[in-house]
Amino acid sequence: MKLLKGYYAYLAVSGGLLLSLAAQHNWALQILAFALVSAGALSVQNASRWYMRASIAADVTMAFKLILGPAVIPPCLLRIVLQYAALVPLLLTGCMLLMGVKDQMHKIEHSTLPEWVLLVVWSAGYILVLVSAPGWLNDYLFNTVWTLANSLISIGGVALIVEMFRAQRIYLQTEEQ
């Protein structure tokens, strides 16, 4: 039964990340996606403390998605500030999930290099968005940074989903032994 619970937990996290990536402009599905991530990460918190932290970060991301819903805050400066602030718990959610996977790989003596590389790619995309937000970049540099940030965020999101499936497979293999 424990094996089945771990399988569904990783499936919930992976499915939530996939739904988050697929429904980027649907705030209701975004809330559902991060609810899945939060519930799945909370289910495997015994594997690593990082999963509990990822669950909390996913809950905060859900709260931001709810506050930034279409009928809550009208377009204004506060909404723009909150949209950029919402990137921080999103960044932390991915980082915490990766640290949880890294802990699991370290415990079973697998290489943790893929998690560290993915952590750098995932973080760099969101950090570039946050750094470019104040508007001190010229137009050319701003467009270049945004293109690079969007590419890194997309690559990081897909790689995080793949990494969660990989963690799921390794988790199942180690639990069977």
From TrEMBL:
Q: Is Membrane one of the keywords UniProt gives this record?
A: yes
Segments spanning the bilayer are: 7-23, 80-101, 113-134, 140-162
Superkingdom of this protein's organism: Bacteria
Which keywords, in A-to-Z order, does the entry hold?
Membrane, Transmembrane, Transmembrane helix
Stated name of the protein? Intracellular septation protein A
